[in-house]
Write a structure and sequence with these properties.
The protein is α+β, with helices and mostly antiparallel strands. It has helices spanning 50-72, 93-100, 103-113, 185-192, 198-208; strands spanning 5-18, 21-37, 80-87, 121-125, 132-138, 151-155, 165-173. The radius of gyration is 19 Å and the shape is globular.
């Protein structure tokens, strides 16, 4: 697999002060990105993406996840996670999506981090040096509505993706935003007396207006 991946970039961000106040404990966010040749480059429109997904997705997970878990301090230290892909200008956004939107990739991060929630994501097209945003949220289904863990980190590779390349990335965080104080979805639901979805709530409130 390593002969298919041109490079891996790992970024560690430690926040010690936020809002002029020490972050106790500091927040660590670790992201890793793999640059690989688009397996569908030069093939025109490919109807069946599955063979390359089966070949590459699980191995990409194994290439990226162990390092971010280790650098973050291990499974028990991780509270939030996410994933992302950016495909070069000659590829389809579907090509990047194909490699991250499969359990063969996502489960590597979910299991490595000890998570139960789905993985938030971005998938887009861009060129070299693209600032790829990776959204994160709480790793557990029970706390997925915790707004403290609604985080975004970015990673950029100066020479990637080339036109025929894809950048695949994952990220984990050891906590929520330092000094978070805007409440969460569960607090809103309790105060508003609802367990409705956002769309259902909007309709209901419009009827009451």
């Amino acid at each position: 697999m390593k002969n298919k991946v041109r490079k891996v970039v790992i970024l560690t961000e430690n926040t010690f002060i936020e809002g002029e106040k020490p972050a106790e404990p500091p927040l660590r966010v670790v992201s890793a990105a793999a640059v690989l040749r688009n397996p569908w480059a030069g093939m025109g429109f490919v109807e069946d993406l599955r063979p390359a997904i089966l070949e590459l997705a699980p191995v990409l997970g194994q290439l990226l996840v162990p390092d971010v878990i280790r650098i973050a301090g291990g499974k028990s230290a991780i509270q939030a996670y996410g994933k992302a892909a950016v495909v070069g200008s000659n590829g389809e956004i579907e090509h990047g999506s194909a490699l991250i939107h499969t359990l063969r990739f996502g489960n590597v991060l979910r299991q490595g981090a000890g998570g139960t929630s789905f993985l938030p994501f971005t998938n887009t097209r861009g060129g070299p040096g693209f600032f790829l945003s990776i959204p994160l949220h709480n790793k557990t289904k029970e706390q997925v509505g915790s707004r403290a863990h609604f985080l975004t980190t970015t990673i950029s590779v100066p020479d990637a993706p080339g036109p025929d390349e894809i950048v695949i990335a994952v990220a984990v965080a050891t906590g929520g935003r330092p000094h978070h104080r805007i409440g969460d979805r569960y607090q809103d639901m309790a105060e508003m007396g609802t367990d409705q979805t956002g769309a259902e709530l909007a309709v209901d409130l419009s009827r009451r207006a």
